[in-house]
Amino acid sequence: MPRVTLCSLVPIVVAFAAVYFASHLGVWEQAVQTICSKPAATRPTLLLLGDSLTEQGVDPNKSGWVALLQNRYQRSADVLPRGLSGYNTKWFIEFALPVIKRELSSGGISPSLITLWLGANDAALVDGPSARQHVPVDTYTANLEEIILALRASAPDADLLVITPPHVDDAARLQRSRTGRLDRSNAIAGEYAKACVVTAERLDVAVLDVHSLFKSMSAREQAMTLEDGLHLSAWGRGPRSRSRSMSRFPRGTDSWIGC
């Protein structure tokens, strides 16, 4: 049976994320098997770093993307989520990164691929009820670079995949606000997403621009995709329309067909 390989891990997760988000976007395309000829020497490990978007991804009741990955590759790879709800890049560097660096340097974790999904909390409005989480976009960019370089130094053999902050539904966030004030906005989230893409491309790191995936959606689809205006819902589990092309996703739509 085919086995996952190191050189196939980035397109695997990019493609899986693409298919996952595409199912919410009303798109479903046939996955294509792509395998490198030389199998990995050891069982691959996928290390998923981020905030609540990663932490909540573990929840199977929400068709969480992490839970889907764990189910998809349970016989082929270890999927290790390290999602920290509420964290911005500043707190991640201060509290999480030292622990992760120790794990990586000691050999406690030897990932073949690391995903990094931060920025949704950095983009909290500076004058909103979540202002404590706000990190200026220039500082966010510098922090993101620091994290990427630290991960590269601690896990030089691992591939990296950076994911941008997602779309924000302003109306839904305002409706859920206890203070009557908006905590996040899509316009500001878009600025952080652009900064994320620019930083990743400058550092030659694979990037999945989740924020841009929402631009061609209708308002109804956007609302159904997000359960609270920020976090992904369980909508879109079944097959959807083929009306949109998968070409918007980086590195194509190839995915590994596991054992």
UniProtKB/TrEMBL annotation:
Signal peptide residue numbers: none
* Family matches, as InterPro entries: Iah1-like, SGNH_hydro, SGNH_hydro_sf
Q: Region Disordered: which residues?
A: 237-259
- Domain named SGNH hydrolase-type esterase: residues: 48-236
Pfam families membership: Lipase_GDSL_2
Q: What PANTHER family does the annotation carry?
A: ISOAMYL ACETATE-HYDROLYZING ESTERASE 1, ISOAMYL ACETATE-HYDROLYZING ESTERASE 1 HOMOLOG
What is this protein identified as? SGNH hydrolase-type esterase domain-containing protein
User: Which species is this UniProt entry from?
Assistant: Phytophthora rubi
